[in-house]
Automatic annotation (TrEMBL):
InterPro entries: Thioredoxin-like_sf, Thioredoxin_domain. Gene3D superfamilies: Glutaredoxin. This is Thioredoxin 1. It comes from Desulfofustis glycolicus DSM 9705. Pfam families: Thioredoxin. Transmembrane segments: none annotated. Residues 6-99 form the Thioredoxin domain.
Amino acid sequence: MEEKITLLNRESFGEFVKNNDCLVAFFKSKCPNCKVLLKVMEKCKAGRPEIAMACISSEDEEAVARMLAIGRVPTVLVYKGGEEKTRKSGVMKPAELEDLYLRA
């Protein structure tokens, strides 16, 4: 079972969400809340290694962020069956992140 958070780019994004039920976080490198959320994702991943998790830089991949109407970061999107099921912006606790995924 994969136990790391995958860093996506515009080439890998579509394939990743098509092939995985997953959480994808959009972030900016200098955003303090984004850094906190990435740590939260690591904690959540440690407890739930079966959940595929990835992140993508909204700075480096502006076209993807624009296409998905990402207005602020951090924003987490949940994909199941290749489709976006829900999204939430802001910092969450590990249990909230897990709940977001499980309820989608």
